[in-house]
Design goal:
Strand content: 5-15%
Number of strands: 4
Largest sheet: 4 strands, mixed
Helix content: 40-55%
Length: 218
């Protein structure tokens, strides 16, 4: 399998964390697609993913799977030992709900802020920007942080009692927030404490060096 991504990207981080949680690093080859040069918007990459986003998983039969949730679903079911996306119907429903909320209320909001209210990836990539919309999404992301703080005040993980895809999505959002200097509000003590714990997980801590490790084992 191949993973097309960029080593510091917050969305690619979601799949890298999932790979590590599943101990699948040795089964993938990482292919760098330079976000800062806009390689993800070039014609040869758009053949792989019409949306022009990272990451993308290429299977050995040439099938391309885009979208972090879809890739995580595939990886989690490979060995028959589902640990990230839910075993029961109830678990699946809650994990998917909370992961989608994390995308809408935090991760994607930070992304819009980055692309519209900051220099983003530069003028060659950011063809259109709407700063007002970007700042509105920044404020939405901050509200999202308060929401997840309330969730984590009452349970150890985003979707309940175990680490899941939902936690990975919130981690991606906070990675992105760190990249754009959007700190977690001081009063969000539960979210900050949870994130400190998550940063100690090997899958999170080692995500950037993963491509070098995988390359050495292929």
């Amino acid at each position: 399998m191949k993973i097309y991504d960029w080593h510091t990207g917050p969305y690619p981080a979601r799949v890298r964390i999932a790979l590590a949680e599943k101990n699948l690093q040795s089964r993938v080859q990482f292919v760098s697609v330079d976000l800062w040069k806009g390689e993800h918007k070039k014609a040869d990459f758009l053949v792989k993913n019409y949306s022009g986003t990272l990451p993308v998983l290429e299977l050995d039969d040439g099938t391309y799977i885009a979208e972090c949730t879809a890739i995580t679903e595939y990886l989690d079911s490979l060995d028959g030992n589902v640990i990230l996306t839910g075993k029961t119907s109830r678990e699946k429903g809650i994990i998917h709900m909370m992961s989608k909320r994390a995308e809408l209320e935090l991760l994607d909001a930070v992304s819009v802020y980055f692309h519209h209210a900051t220099p983003g990836l530069g003028p060659d990539v950011e063809i259109y920007q709407n700063a007002e919309w970007g700042f509105r999404q920044r404020d939405k992301a901050l509200r999202g942080m308060h929401y997840f703080d309330s969730v984590l005040s009452n349970q150890p993980f985003v979707a309940g009692d175990t680490f899941s895809m939902a936690d990975i999505t919130v981690i991606g959002g906070l990675i992105f927030a760190g990249l754009v200097d959007l700190p977690v509000p001081a009063e969000c003590e539960a979210l900050k404490a949870w994130y400190a714990r998550m940063q100690e997980r090997p899958s999170v801590k080692n995500r950037i060096t993963m491509s070098e490790q995988a390359r050495a084992s292929v």
